Amino acid sequence: MPPPLSWIVAIARFLYEFIVGDDWTVAAAVAAGLILSAMLNANHIAAWWLMPVIVVLILGISLRRASGRLG
Amino acid sequence: MTGVVAVLITTFLASAVEAIEMVTIVIGVGATRGWRSTLIGAASGFGVLAVVVVVLGAALSQVPIGPLRLIVGALLLTFGLQWFRKGIMRVAARGLAGIGGQDPHEAAEWTGPGMDWTAWFLAFKGVVLEGLEVAFIVVTFGAGSNQLGTAVVSGVGAIVIVGAVGFSLHQTVRRIPRSLLQLIVGVLLSTFGSFWAIEGLGIEWPGGDAAIPGLLVLYVATAATYITLERNRALGLRPAA
Q1: Which residue from B193, B197, B238 is spatially nearest to B216, judged by alpha carbons?
Q2: Number of helices (H) and strands (E), helices first, in chain B?
Q3: Residue A55 maps to a domain
Q4: Residue of chain A nearest B199, judged by CA positions
């Protein structure tokens, strides 16, 4: 692969590993949490509590998925 | 004279809060992933910061920091949660094995060839975002009171002093087992990530910066709960003796 293309592929791979890692549901939950928080805020509803709740829940879900993978 | 002292103290204290966040991220990442790439990332961040401050000067206060907080916060949160989960699983499986020395199950540090871009990226983002916040504080307090020179000395002094205190503690941090350190850094990245991402959306936290310790307590309690649940689950799967 010629250098400019190989750099783009390497950067894309790094960003995927950094953001998504080995469980895509975590990144999806964070994105959904941010969108929902923005929607609540736009409707003048307190939204600061939503992301911590999502963090606690998605950690539990991700742990169960990882434990399931390990057997 | 009173005005100079007031600007000096106010700018120092406000900048110190941001500097603590910056140094916490750099020390945590450095101790977990290795220092070389982390310090290069931090130095790159300071380089970018210096260019931005020199080019924009007092116009810095017009730069919208919300989108930057949102992007950096979301990235820290998604990455921090990965370490948070791995840290819980490792501490649940091995306890505090290796405390006071090296856990034999864990690799020492990043051993791959070249740069550890993950460490570089985390340190770079932490320095750029927090450094920009210090620069905003300096410009806001300094320009508002016509004491920009005093505010610059105070802001830079806060970073230097907090940085020195942080690096004097790095040998202590190295004694923490890697699995526990990964959990601690995961909790810290998730805490700062949650705080900045929500703040970046323009949502106010109750108590402002005081919400950070509250988030930290919640996530530490979450880690303790999940470690207990993981241990019980592992024990439950073991065949009866």
Answers
A1: B193
A2: 8, 0
A3: yes
A4: A48
ipTM of this predicted complex?
Answer: 0.90
As to burial, measured by CB atoms within 10 angstroms (0-12 exposed, 13-18 middle, 19+ buried), residue A36 is middle
d(CA B209, CA B218): 15
- Domain with A45 in it: 22-70
> CA angle, corner B183, sides to A64 and B193, nearest 5?
90
In a domain, residue B241? The reply is no
Residue A70 to residue B103: CA distance in whole angstroms: 21
In chain B, whose CA is at the least distance from the CA of A35? B201
Q: Which residues from chain B sit within 8 angstroms of residue A23, using beta carbons?
A: 82, 85
What pTM value is reported for the model?
A: 0.77
Number of domains composing chain A: 1
Please calculate the CA angle A12-A15-A18 and round it to the nearest 5 degrees. Answer: 150
Domain enclosing residue B191, as ranges: 2-236
**Using CA atoms, how far apart are residues B233 and B222, in angstroms rounded to an integer?**
16
Name the domain count of chain B: 1
pLDDT digits (tens, 9 = 90+) for B35-63: 899 999 999 999 998 888 888 776 776 77
Q: How far is B149 from chain A (nearest CA, A)?
A: 37
Domain membership flag for residue A49: yes
